[in-house]
Amino acid sequence: MTGGIEVIQPGIFSTIQDTGRFGFMKFGVPRSGPMDSYAAKLGNLLLQNSQNDAVLEITLSGPHLKFSKPAVIVITGADLFSTVNGIRVENNKIIQISPGDVLSFGKRVKGCRCYLSIKGGFLTEEILDSKSWYDGITPFFRLEKGYKLKYIEAEIDISSHGSQLKINKDYFDSPQIDVFPGPEYYLLPDDLQKTLANTTFTVDNKNNRMAIQLKEMLGNSLQPIITGPVVPGTVQLTPSGKLIILMRDCQTTGGYPRIMSLTENGINRLSQKIEGEKVRFKIKPDIPD
Question: Is this model's pTM higher than 0.90 or not?
Fold first, then answer.
């Protein structure tokens, strides 16, 4: 049987995401998918779901959600002070939900984005081979008051497994962001390459699922490039010297020099930073041919 989750309060920005929308970039369609793929995959793994089952990505201030049927859930990623019926619940733990229970998220404790995974995944519409919400592609692009999220009714099977996972939490506190040199990196003067490796940057208030800007300005003598392909993790250097780091909902082409590219782990770490937090780039050797 299916149950429904009533959105009592939607929070700042909550979206349904699966692993992403692949094969459509040639039509200008972004990949989307969870900003922190590690946290999203962890929730599905703990529930023995498919890796591609849809989760709810919750940013900074979360929703209040009322369940109509039994459900089994896990909350991963950022700590947004989650409670069930006003009682604090922990991240990375399997939680049994009863009919009428209200899951709420309160004041942010650590991180930026958390993930609500549910046994069997959220049963939202699949468009272009993905359930990931994106404005202009799917009917909804953010959670709204009164929306009903469908799911498969479930209860905990305590005999299902006894495995344990070692959970990586250091990326909330570490400023290190791993990157590879981008296509235009070696056009930068040596002193600017050193500046990139030795500067502590600050996350700007201009940040969302499309891109995250950094506050510090760099000198830039590079000419704009002929429009070329970009992907999540591409670091662009604007003519003014601003660094723009493209994220999961980014465009598919761009004309700014692509000086670096974040690793998958680098994207996950950056996605958990909020305005004012610091990052440092660790530039790894070129990816071998």
Answer: yes
